[in-house]
Design goal:
The chain is an alpha+beta fold. Helix content is 52%, strand content 10%. The chain contains eleven helices and six strands. The radius of gyration is 18 Å and the shape is globular.
Amino acid sequence: MQLTDAMDEVLSGLSAQDDELDGLVAGLDDDGWATPSRCPGWSVADVVLHVAQTDEMAAASAEERFTADAVRFGVKASDVPAGATVDDLAGLAVAAQRAPGAVVYSRWRAAAAAQAKALAACEPGRRLQWVAGEMSALTLATTRLAEVWIHTGDVAAGLGRDRRPTAALRPIARLAWRTLPYAFSRAGRTLSGPVALALTAPDGSLWEFTPDGPASATAPSTVVTGPALDFCLVAARRVPASATALRATGPDGDAVLELVRTFA
């Protein structure tokens, strides 16, 4: 797939994902916005606020307005405790900017539109700044698709709504697969060899992701099989691999299912 085609696929998926989230929250009353989400300690409004904040950050990155404050989610350096993680910073940002649901909704819709416009104006291979460091515009757009998909699930779970998996899972699964070396390095570990995926798509077809380099006697392959939805949920850290139909064989099988992730 050409980079421009891949970017179009991701941006189309992101637009559809924004529409799904909108369908869940548009018209909620105060009680609905205050409903606890799947994210511990966050209401539905808090989750949507976090999405708005990160959409704004992505638009700033694409427009070359990304600053040190943005890396901290807008939290002042003096307010950041020593050893704070990305999750800590996100929590501080939400706590500092909580607002009524209607206000959060309007902010998110504006932020989502700004993000879509800014990313669509980028060449897929253009390097952009982000919280975890520099990445291509295509990777940032895919990261945004993954995050909005994850948090739409958090909102749906809080509101007791069902979701249907779609083809938008494909770039999310690919992102998690391609960034496995990063996930391993964060944990201070190294992959023993290449990793391949053979995932069942929502429509029953097979999505295969194969490594660039061949396996060898000294670097044998690890292969992960199972539903694409399960793989994405595990990478999103929303369910443990043991609760899914995923299976992994090879030297890094257990570690891949433990460390795979879609976010910094």
